[in-house]
Amino acid sequence: MKEITSDDVPDALGPYSQAIVSDGTVHVSGKTGVDPETGEAPDSVGAQTTQTLANVERILKAAGTDADAIFRSTVYLTDMDDYDEVNEAYRSYLSEPYPARTCVEVSRLPAPLDVEITVDAELDGDE
């Protein structure tokens, strides 16, 4: 087991790793759409989703892989009415075949944001 960190994403909000590599898989903890340069998040859930995926990809790059290697994701929304807007941003950021995915509505997130995403990705990306 190996911890992965990146200075190119906002710090974790609690006692957890940004990502862990285990058995050839990168497990990225939940990320949000906070811009690491400004410390602010966009207002729209679509823009938050795009920024969240960019933050996820920065961690994946630190681990030696990229978004094309994502095979599973979980999307947490504070309002399921945002589902279509999140899907639009998700579709424009990721490529087919899209990862297996679960999407759930939660009452709130640790930061006052609308979306959080966690992913699992392959290190070698060839399967």
From TrEMBL:
Protein name, as recorded: RidA family protein
EC number of the protein: 3.5.-.-
Domain of life assignment: Archaea
Broad enzyme group: hydrolase
Annotated organism of origin: Halorubrum glutamatedens
Family: Belongs to the RutC family.
Stretches of the chain forming a coiled coil according to its record: none
Lineage summary: Archaea, Methanobacteriati, Methanobacteriota, Stenosarchaea group, Halobacteria
Matches recorded under InterPro entries: RidA, RutC-like_sf, YjgF/YER057c/UK114
GO molecular-function term, one example from the UniProt record: hydrolase activity
